[in-house]
Amino acid sequence: MSKRFVALGDSFTEGVGDEDAGRPNGVRGWADRVAEVFGAADPEFGYANLAVRGRLLPQVLREQLDRALEMRPDLVSLYAGGNDLMRPKVNIDALMRAYDAAVALLVKSGARVVLFTGVDGGDDPVFRRMRGRVAIYNEHVRAIAAKHSCVVVDMWNMRQLRDRRMWSADRLHLNSLGHTEVAISVLDSLGVSHALTRAVLGDPPSVDPRVQRAENWKWAREHVVPWVMRRVRGESSGDVIKPRRPELLPLEVERVPRKGASND
């Protein structure tokens, strides 16, 4: 089992959408949940989370890669590029060449590397327009993972993440249910026993079209317009944000039983 876990990336890995006022930056997220499972089994386990919301892929690599390598982790997660794909113009091939080089360095350091595909937003009228870009990005991720023998968490094929009840009010970030789903998939992909459980939501409720339109307008006012204005001003939601766990430190967590473990 891993002794040193470093998480790299943007808002997805920082934990945005999974609010927890008692934690740094006011969020928890899937990476914390994964770290808690490791930490419950080993009090000397160390965890650092360098991810910062709003970061583009080049920024993630420039600001976080060397710091991660200095910590000599045996497990690293990397997800970045989603913010780049949302820009009006993006050179995906160039982005992924830099991504490939970064993954090569992480693997060469001896770390086991976890990569992620993007989520399929085909059911969303806004993010459906990005579907082709995300699919190209995902094919690059899969090829790079195969080249370097990395673990891939295939969120594109996680059908449950297409349920809006897994997402926060901004429709861009996963809520606590969604982050738990990702944590489970990460742990399962690593072959780590755990006691996390997936949500059983049942069929989504039917929504009156008039109510849906009103909700869409409210979402646009509260989330889309501020996002556009930040782009116009050249600002990012992460401009004043610092990494939540910039150092590789042990976790103070309640010990929880793992699947199949004795309760004695």
UniProtKB/TrEMBL annotation:
Domain of life: Bacteria
Pfam family, one: Lipase_GDSL_2
Domain called SGNH hydrolase-type esterase: residue spans: 7-179
InterPro entries membership: GDSL_Rv0518-like, SGNH_hydro, SGNH_hydro_sf
Name of the protein in its database record: Lysophospholipase L1
Organism of this sequence: Lentzea fradiae
